[in-house]
Amino acid sequence: MNQLIDVGIIGGGPAGMSAALALGRARKSVVVIDEGRPRNRVTRESHGFLTRDGITPSEFRRIAREQISAYSSVHFVEDTAVTITGHDGNFLISTAQGTTYQSKKLLFAVGMKDLPLPVNGLAEVYGKSAFVCPYCDGWELRDQPLVLIANGEKALHLAKMLSGWTHQYTICTNGPDQFTEEQRMELLQHRVPVFDSPIERIVSVDGMVQRVNLVDGNSISCTGIFFAPKLVAGSDLPKALGCQVSEAGMVIVDSFGKTSVPGVYSAGDAATTQYQVIAAAALGSVAGMSINNELLVEEWNRQS
User: Fold this and answer.
1) Over the stretch 138-147, which tens digit does the pLDDT of each residue have?
2) Are the C-beta atoms of residues 171 and 193 closer than 8 Å to each other?
3) Which terminus of the chain faces fewer neighbouring Cβ atoms within 10 Å, N or C?
């Protein structure tokens, strides 16, 4: 595509699509480049999005694209952005399929990616009976016996959160615990069992967890699991372009989604630790409107 478009959006999840909707309604030309492998593809249902509670991720994306299709200036392409060069007003996006897009502004809505955890059987239950967010899936497992796979401060944080949905949970640190003495006492006071033996295997049937077997011979029956994921940035492109990122790979932005690089924005899970579909969509909308405002002011000043 040789024509200069207004905005190139990298990532077509809730943040990217929400930004595309705002920009499409603002009559801006947009290309959304998405590889079609969202992080939440393993989950059966998405929760917490008003009017869409319980929808499947694939249906959510289908409806969103269907509604955005009403705005002919927005185009979706299934591809992967591999390099980005240029500067504010003239960015060049090269893709894995050999296409180049030229855009005035950029929005990274690349999300985060899960690194595989060394736990036998976790992949079979992830998204079915093992989850990472109580706000997303705690209701479905309320008052049920759960296993929490995490260690140190993350385990204590999850334990406090889960107490709103059930008091029947056990912590498995999957190896020597990393708790301070004060944290151990806190868990003891709240009668939270802690096992530090490595996990031998998660036993499940059709994705539904039955028990967690430990190397030391203990077996913990449960109907669900929450675990602390290991995440990496969904793309290295923001960092390669010079955007300031945190140690965890999150793109650092202001309240409008602006990064440290002029003309470059980021939204959604790539730019926040609030991993919620509705939060990602909200941040995408804010970034989309901010980009539009920036383009309008620039055009206004050119005509002065």
Assistant:
1) 999 999 999 9
2) yes
3) C
